[in-house]
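Need tokens for this chain, all 431 residues.
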Amino acid sequence: MSAAENPHRLGPRPLPLHLATAYMTWTSSCAGLPLLKSGLPFLRAGEARPQRPKSESPANFQQLLNEIEAHDLSDFTQSLTQEVRGRLSAFLAGIETYRAHPYRRALTDPPICWEEGSTRLLDFGTLQTGSRDTARAGKKETAILVVPSLVNRSYVLDLTEQSSLMRWLSSQGFRPYLLDWGAPNEIEESFSLTNYIAGYLDRALDHVLTQTGGRPPVLMGYCMGGLLALALAQRREKDLAGLALLATPWNFHTAGSGVSIDQMAMVNSSYLPLASQLGHLPVDALQSLFTILEPMVVPRKFVTFSRLDPAGFAAQKFVAVEDWINDGVPLAAPVARECLEGWYQQNRPGTNTWQIAGKTVVPEELELPCLAAVPTQDRIVPPDSALALCTALKKVEILRPSSGHIGMIVGQQAVDELWRPLACWMTALRH
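Here are the structure tokens for all 431 residues:
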């Protein structure tokens, strides 16, 4: 059941983890203040301190110590306590406002033109009517097969009437087809990535080719879907006109990855047995992995949300995105192992050891024209990870949207920084 159908919001998921993270992080400032002031001599301003990596020491640390030294400790403690209470109150208020917000996604899905198991293929080209249909008559449209992540619902690409990349591409004369993976059923819980790529994805492409009369479509993948699309492109290169990769990771051990190999091994030692036992990795477990990458992102964004006018456009957009984030799907147990262990822990894509259907995925071998969008503020897929794939591809044009992982798709600058350049690139493939 999607967020649009369910009036009871569960997010931000997992809520206990976000509440505990915010409380412990902010209240630890109160506990740490006396230590900074007098309890740990080597932390005092002006005194020698052990050398630490720059990444562990904020640039303004010395300035903070100077400010603490300049104020009475009791006054400073009182001000700090008030600030902590204010942030916690704002965080809780933001959550309550979100959970009670009247917005519900009301877009109707386009027709399903193909489906197998839990996977559907949505034909957005059928949404254009009237004069637009007339304009399309006699014109060979460029078809686009769009592949989203397996762990998120596909409708981030069709979020609202105003923020729908799929509907916009259709209005520009393209024929977009969007895969919607759905939650794995009992049979699909035994699926590997090979089952999805060499099975469902292969056959979805076959269907698109029947609709185009054999004209090769553009293949486009977003995030994890970009890796799936890349593997399909290597299998079916002659059937494709081009490959667009949006925020697609490749080297999982680059700087800024957020989780070390040892940390990932510890996570896997708990999560993978759980997935094996249940047949899938639950949504809340998956969401907690994103929290590990940036623990305080949820508290900070809900504090900001608490200050918005609930009836305003910005608040509605926040709720729309947040509903999508919390409306995830479980990951089949074999796929969870391939991703968490094979990708994040062992870095098989980045070391050219990732295989699909017995064949290694090697982007250097791909001759297709490619477009790679690498957002500069991405926290989910570090830019260096995505740029490593750009380096490996032979024919690639790179876009650098000044946004984050989701903002690149639905943000205020998405039309100018991604949608239009993407359309221009695909139009040029026709010539």
